[in-house]
Amino acid sequence: MVPLTPGERAALDRLEERERSLRRGATLVREKDHGGEMFVLRKGTVMSSVLLDDGSRQILRFMFPGDLLAGSALVYREATETLTALTDCTVSPFERPLLAKLITDHPRLAAVIMVYSQIERAALTDRLAALGRTSAKARVAAILIEIRNRQRMMNPALGSSFVLGLTQEEIGDATGLTAVHVNRMLRQLEEEHLIARETGRMILKDERALSRAANYVDRYTGLDLAWLPDPR
Questions:
Q1: DSSP 3-state assignment of 8?
Q2: Chain centroid offset of residue 77 CA
Q3: For residue 196, with 0-12 CB atoms within 10 Å meaning exposed, 13-18 middle and 19 or more buried, which class applies?
Q4: Do residues 20 and 91 touch, judged by C-beta distance below 8 A?
Q5: Where would I find the HTH crp-type domain in this sequence (predicted)?
Q6: Host H or E run for residue 212
Q7: Which of 137, 155, 141, 139 has its CA nearest to residue 204?
Q8: What is the residue extent of each domain of the chain?
């Protein structure tokens, strides 16, 4: 998105000097835990979630390599969400003072971090609006497009076939649906020839029609970054 100077790359590398491995299903951070660590996701997929009063789980976001995890540790003593590995993962933990030094020494990097936080905020706003105002089919379709598009950012050669990596229960927890309802919506999308499913893979057969059905907005496009400060 933004070409980095050698000094900026070195500053980011310092955030990734340590590594920690997680197996699928492992909890990295639990909601209301105390701690000031943040993480860079190096490999794999992580989801954030919260527990509701009735004991059900609401999945908020899916995170991919390069994403900053547990950013709420910057301002809260207790974690605001639970972070769970959806696949085998590698993360790089770092403490807040290291990020404070990065912000002081490289204000453009601080601005880029703020840009990503605004992209994430806009995407969460879309998800909130979808939960309250769109159909079950639209919500499921939007999740499929979101996962594929984030994977495509890491692998621009990725086509319409991809590994979804989510159970129907996890899709349901992200869209406010039961696993049975998710299964019904996936079958409907197949019957409408918008998607196809093969062993372990999802295929988007008509991406334009699927995007229309999902009311999907790609928040990683249409960015205006002309205001970013010059690098030091």
A1: helix
A2: 23
A3: middle
A4: yes
A5: 134-208
A6: helix 207-214
A7: 141
A8: 6-123, 135-214
The pairing of strands 201-204 and 161-162 is antiparallel
Confidence of residue 228 (pLDDT cuts 50, 70, 90): very high
Contact criterion met (CB below 8 Å) for 18 and 92: yes
> What pTM did the predictor assign?
0.93
> Which amino acid appears at position 72 of this protein?
S
Q: What angle do CA 119, 122, 124 make, to 5 degrees?
A: 110
Give 3-state DSSP helix, strand, coil % of the chain, rounded to 5.
Answer: 45, 20, 35
Is 195:148 a contact under the CB 8 Å cutoff? no
Give residue 39's Cα distance to chain centre. Answer: 14
User: With respect to CATH, is domain 6-123 assigned 2.60.120.10?
Assistant: yes
CATH architecture of 135-214: Orthogonal Bundle (1.10)
Digit-coded pLDDT (tens) for 200-212: 899 999 999 999 9
pLDDT in tens, 59-88: 999 999 999 999 999 999 999 999 999 999
Residue identified by tokens 């491995």 is 21
